[in-house]
Amino acid sequence: MLNAKSWAILAAVAAVAIGGFANAESVSASSSAALSQPVALEAAAARKPLMWALDQVGMAKPLDDWGINIGGHVDASWTYYADKAAGKDQAGRGFDLEHEDPTLNQVDIFIERTVDASKGKWDVGGRMEWIYGADARLIHSTGLFDYYGLNEGPENQFDPVQGYIDVAIPVGNGLRVRLGKFVTPAGYETINPTTTPLYTRGLLFTYLLPFTHTGAVATYAWNDQLSFDGGIVRGWDDALEDKNADGVTFLGRVSYATADKKSTYATTVLVGPEDANDNTTTRSLVDFVWTYKASDQWSFAAEADFLWETDIGAAERNVGQPDGTDNADGYAGGLGGWASYVWSDYVTVNGRVEYLYDGQGIRFGAAAPGTGNNVYSAALGLTVTPFPKSDLGSNLKIRPEVRYDYADHAVFGGESNTQFTFGLEAYFTF
Predict the structure, then answer these.
(1) Residue 203 or residue 28, greater confidence
(2) CB 3.0–4.6 Å: which of 146, 181, 191, 245 could bond 140 by disulfide?
(3) Shortest CA distance to 289 belongs to which of 262, 259, 268?
(4) Could you report the per-residue pLDDT of 157-190, keeping only the tens digit for each?
(5) What one-character DSSP code corresponds to residue 43?
(6) What Cα–Cα distance (Å) separates residue 382 from each residue in 347, 349, 350, 385?
(7) Distance between CA atoms of 115 and 178, rounded to whole angstroms?
């Protein structure tokens, strides 16, 4: 039976769907999570409903003149776990944790002013973005709403997911410096559901990558194909409070797009201490992402990650050493592949396969101390656009998905090696 909260969430999804019948006009809105611009493959989208609504009352023109854009999205979902056991957490999942519980994942709103460093002049912009919903409890950075979380506070929480200033500096081809809190450039999948092909987030996103960084990063475009990022951040999901004894993490990235813009390559490196009250250990991550748009119908992506932690204790590795010492190096890594096929204006088919290696239990862990895990996952989903011809209705997406996970050890709900789920998500961008 659905309770009052469940009916409220379902009503919100229904209201989003009804909104798709309306009509609207068009202009562009940017929501890129990447630091470097050359990896983008898609053209700017139509004007979103919020800016369109402001246009109707004469408020959008001043914002356009100032280069300011306002927008966001609403995202809700429902997931069924075939092997759900009472009191068991759902292993292997990032955001989709609730079983048969209609969930308000995200109400996101942002205000931004983008800068173009290639114009050869000084300019200042930035972005402020907030999320409210069940996903926010899982992405808090230190010092920012981190007194809440998965097991603390309400199910729906607030999180200031991004807040940064961009400064364009007329040096060479143009230098952009970003100061503040921003989502990680590593990985193919994102916190934002509208820039991620499937409803569920994969193993690599969940276990091998940070969510956000706080610090300073500079981006320099060597030309329209090659760009570089480099900077210093506080660490993985660190913001206003310290958790690594005042250590800092180096962030570097190289991005390359082929001349025809069909293929992109991006390598991101993160190196720094990440353990609480300890800046002597080091966590290093190398993340590689490749995308390829083969045709108007087919597109592909691949990701490879390698994570290495030095001199870490047995409690963190979930494994003791035979000689009785507690400290040693730990390794984890993974591979992922995605494919998308545009069946029609109404339906796109998306698939994902992944492999996660965590032989020493430093990230995923296992059923008992002293063991690691090999985890495999496959997901197949649809992106349904019920009203593709409507400028407003085309912002509504409905995404059913089936997923199967397998692990060496019985870590899933009900103490099983396998986990099968079905999920249904709807989001509306505004």
Answers:
(1) 203
(2) 146
(3) 268
(4) 999 999 999 999 999 999 999 999 999 999 999 9
(5) P
(6) 7, 5, 6, 10
(7) 11
- Asked if 290 and 283 touch (Cβ cutoff 8 Å), the reply is no
Give the pTM. 0.85
Reading phi first (left if > 0) and then psi (alpha if -120 to 50, else beta), residue 329 is in beta
First-to-final CA distance of the chain: 32
Q: What does the angle CA 91 – CA 95 – CA 99 come to, to the nearest 5 degrees?
A: 65
Cβ–Cβ under 8 Å, residues 207 and 363: yes
How would you label 59-86 residue by residue, b for 16+ Cβ within 10 Å and e otherwise? ebeebeeeeebbbbbbbbbbbebebbee
Which CATH superfamily includes the segment(s) 4-429?
Answer: Porin (2.40.160.10)
Does residue 241 contact residue 277 with C-beta atoms inside 8 Å? no
Domain ranges for the chain: 4-429
What's the rounded Cα separation, in Å, for the pair 112 and 102?
Answer: 31
For residue 21, the tally of other CB atoms under 10 A from its CB is 12
Burial 123-146 (b: 16+ CB within 10 A, else e): bebbbbbbbbbbbbbbbbbbebbb
Decide: 183 and 191 in contact? Cβ < 8 Å: yes
- Spatial CB neighbours of 113, under 8 Å, sequence gap ≥ 6: 66, 67, 68, 69, 124, 125, 126, 127
CB 333 within 8 Å of CB 368: no
Q: pLDDT tens, 91-128?
A: 778 899 888 889 999 999 999 999 999 999 999 999 99
- Residues 21-74 have pLDDT tens digits of 333 333 223 333 445 443 333 333 468 888 888 888 888 888 988 999 999 999
The answer to whether the CB of 181 falls within 8 A of the CB of 145 is no
For the record, the structure tokens of 109 come out as 């709103």
Output the CA–CA distances (angstroms, integers) from residue 97 to 3, 237, 239, in the order listed: 18, 20, 25
